[in-house]
């Protein structure tokens, strides 16, 4: 059996360690999976699967992705092989973000907008806080995407974000969560899957999602 | 909806987890990686490591501990104790921490919170506040507004040894404005007493700031944790000794909170 090469794209934005470690941990129970953290476009091109993390502000992430010379390799991956975006790595897949009025990669139609929850009250009587920080339930859109295989609907995942995705086509929403209203917290199209939440910080349910990604044959 | 979080706190020094009573009398409670893994199994929502090493010699020990924990435990990790500079934040994040917690250094130089938050984002900058209810004598002290301070809580620094003359609620508000993404609020009156959080303090700060507040100090039983959320208005509750000595599991704590109508991840 051939090696299942996974590239975690390092374009210089903050700390990739936790994403890389969680993917490596998930890969330890998957035959022949080999995980590399890389800033080399050729390594991304040679990989069978690509993970695109993202942390910090969207304008910085887009600039670094462009200036690192990795953007073309990521776009090629998006057109040809399983790609998993995390957090800002998800937000960059859309057309545009209101954060710094930044154009995205345009791979999934839609916009990234800020939570407008000032003064609104949660069901338990406390104020909504922004960023959303903590564990929220993730409700899978039907038909359930293969990456949800073996993961219960309504499982809890860890979120930290002030901006969220509004997908233009509801068919691109793979799961929703509720924070002052429902929104797509996982998006998917063809060979692309991406989450607003952090699988790498979501304990067993997060590792399960990465394992499913490593097995995924879109 | 968003779950209220339970955060076990591990005080570490010399590579071991310890627990003090009223900031003194340290007792050994075990190996940090083992304890972290156990809490993860029990469903802890996050872990906080407080480096109580007094000297700078031992500081790198915490980096190794975080590296070891982060390779095995996949939930958010916060590190506090001795965090002074933007460079300290960078080193801890690189070691695998998700958040860093400032205390005395924020008091000495509030600007560091602006700088660290601008560089790494508010979500990874926590400001820890050690607060103590003012004595009648302290209430008479003239504040910056030219009037006696009146009832309330003062901020203490240096592990709770020094009253810095700031009002805790005002300080929390200022730190949130400077870019703190979260406030870790410890009642020094209650810490180690097992008599419950200072719920008035928790409520006062929760009502004043728009960032999440973690209640800390004084948990002796599971209802104390639930009270911190339902009465104190906290977004998360932190405890150490009730979990370290096996009195209760995190799972039991969550079940009690759920019985009391609090949304938790179970």
Give the SSE layout.
The complex is a heterodimer of chains A (218) and B (266).
Chain A: E1 4-9, H1 17-27, E2 33-38, H2 41-46, E3 49-52, H3 58-67, H4 71-80, E4 83-86, H5 88-91, E5 94-97, E6 102-103, E7 108-114, E8 132-140, E9 155-161, E10 163-167, E11 173-178, E12 182-189, E13 192-195, H6 203-215
Parallel strand pairs in A: 1-2, 1-3, 3-4, 4-13, 5-7
Antiparallel strand pairs in A: 5-6, 7-10, 8-9, 8-11, 11-12, 12-13
Helix pairs in contact in A: 1-6
Chain B: E1 5-13, E2 16-21, E3 24-30, H1 32-42, E4 47-51, H2 59-70, E5 77-80, H3 86-95, E6 99-102, H4 104-108, H5 111-120, E7 125-133, H6 136-139, E8 153-157, E9 162-167, H7 168-178, E10 182-187, H8 199-208, E11 213-216, H9 222-230, E12 236-239, H10 241-244, H11 250-259
Parallel strand pairs in B: 1-4, 1-12, 4-5, 5-6, 6-7, 7-10, 10-11, 11-12
Antiparallel strand pairs in B: 1-2, 2-3, 7-8, 8-9
Helix pairs in contact in B: 7-8, 9-11
Protein name (chain A): Imidazole glycerol phosphate synthase subunit HisH
Domain Glutamine amidotransferase (chain A): 8-214
Active site (chain A): 87, 198, 200
């Amino acid at each position: 059996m051939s090696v299942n090469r996974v590239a975690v794209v390092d374009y210089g934005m903050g700390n990739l360690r936790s994403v890389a470690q969680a993917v490596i941990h998930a890969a330890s129970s998957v035959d022949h999976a080999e995980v590399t953290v890389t800033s080399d476009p050729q390594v991304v091109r040679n990989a069978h699967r690509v993970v695109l993390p993202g942390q910090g502000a969207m304008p910085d992430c887009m600039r670094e992705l462009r200036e690192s010379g990795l953007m073309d390799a990521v776009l090629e991956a998006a057109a040809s092989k399983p790609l998993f975006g995390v957090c800002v790595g998800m937000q960059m897949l859309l057309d545009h973000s209101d954060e710094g009025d930044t154009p995205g990669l345009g791979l999934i139609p839609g916009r990234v907008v800020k939570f407008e929850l000032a003064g609104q009250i949660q069901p338990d009587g406390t104020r909504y806080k922004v960023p959303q920080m903590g564990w929220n339930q993730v409700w899978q859109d039907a038909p359930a995407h293969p990456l949800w295989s073996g993961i219960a609907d309504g499982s809890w995942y860890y979120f930290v974000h002030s901006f969220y995705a509004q997908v233009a086509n509801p068919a691109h929403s793979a799961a929703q969560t509720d924070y002052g209203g429902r929104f797509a917290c996982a998006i998917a199209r063809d060979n692309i899957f991406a989450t607003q939440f952090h699988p790498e910080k979501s304990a067993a349910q997060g590792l399960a999602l990465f394992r499913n990604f490593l097995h995924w044959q879109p | 909806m968003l779950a209220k979080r339970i955060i076990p706190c591990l005080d570490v020094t010399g590579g071991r987890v310890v627990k003090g009573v009223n900031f003194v009398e340290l007792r050994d409670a075990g190996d940090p990686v083992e304890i972290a893994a156990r809490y993860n199994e029990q469903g802890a929502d996050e872990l906080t490591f407080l480096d109580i090493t007094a000297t700078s010699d031992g500081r790198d020990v915490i980096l190794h501990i975080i590296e070891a924990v982060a390779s095995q435990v996949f939930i958010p990790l916060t590190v506090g104790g001795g965090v002074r500079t933007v460079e300290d934040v960078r080193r801890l994040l690189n070691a695998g921490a998700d958040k860093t917690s400032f205390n005395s250094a924020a008091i000495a130089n509030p600007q560091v919170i602006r700088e660290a938050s601008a560089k790494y984002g508010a979500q990874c900058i926590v400001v820890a506040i050690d607060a103590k209810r003012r004595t009648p004598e302290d209430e008479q002290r003239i504040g910056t507004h030219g009037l006696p301070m009146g009832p309330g809580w003062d901020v203490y620094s240096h592990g709770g040894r020094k009253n810095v003359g700031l009002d805790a609620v005002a300080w929390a508000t200022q730190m949130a404005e400077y870019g703190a993404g979260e406030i870790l609020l410890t009642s020094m009156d209650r810490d180690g007493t097992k008599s419950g959080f200072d719920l008035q303090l928790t409520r006062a700060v929760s009502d004043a700031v728009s960032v999440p507040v973690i209640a800390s100090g004084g948990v002796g039983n599971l209802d104390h944790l639930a009270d911190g959320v339902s009465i104190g208005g906290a977004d998360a509750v932190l405890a150490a000794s009730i979990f370290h000595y096996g009195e209760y599991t995190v799972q039991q704590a969550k079940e009690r909170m759920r019985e009391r109508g609090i949304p938790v991840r179970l």
